[in-house]
Amino acid sequence: MAAGFSVKTEDLAVFAEEFVKASENFLGDEVTEKTVEVDMEVGFDSLSLELLSELDKFEPTGIGNPRAVFVTSGVEVLDGKLVGSEMKHLKLYVRQGGVEMSAIAFNMGHMYSTLTGNNIVDIAYNLELNEWNGRKKLELKVKDLKIS
Fold first, then answer.
1. Model-level pTM?
2. pLDDT value at position 100?
């Protein structure tokens, strides 16, 4: 069965809030809780351009064949800044096991104040290639992170 309705733009925020409240009574935690499927825990010392090349052999990726998601625990946040036209993305510089990496966390700018001050985090990510000015380097595309 399907149904339709209209909501005035100015009432959209109130509608969304009330809809979430009403839905909590019908949906279990497994539906409303955000989860990230992780393929493997690795240290930064295991990440390399060769590994990325091997992962590229699984292309094309998409809904039925998602990109590999790695998790690394005990990652030190060295520095971070807000980026993007609306400053809602987070660019991080992190270190684990003596290896430093850059990371980009789209739509996670709200976490900036939580991460300042050299916090230790656990981070889930896809391994990406960042090419700029003819230089190639690995970058982490953050899926999720939490304070350790």
1. 0.75
2. 97
CATH of 40-147, one of 3.20.20.140, 3.30.70.1710, 3.10.20.310, 2.40.50.460: 2.40.50.460
* DSSP per-residue string spanning 26-81: TS-HHHHS------EE--GGG--HHHHHHHHTT-S-SSSSPPP-EEEEEEEEEEEE
Q: Can you tell me whether residue 8 is helix, strand or coil?
A: coil
Distance in angstroms (rounded) separating the CA atoms of residues 130 and 148: 27
Tens digits of residue pLDDT in 71-102: 999 999 999 999 999 999 999 999 999 999 99
Q: How far apart are CA 35 and CA 17, in angstroms?
A: 21
Question: Position of tokens 């959209």?
Answer: 12
Which phi and psi angles does 127 have, rounded to 5°? -90, 125
CB 103 within 8 A of CB 125: yes
Distance CA 125, CA 120 (A): 16
Domain boundary assignment for the chain: 40-147
Confidence of residue 48 (pLDDT cuts 50, 70, 90): very high
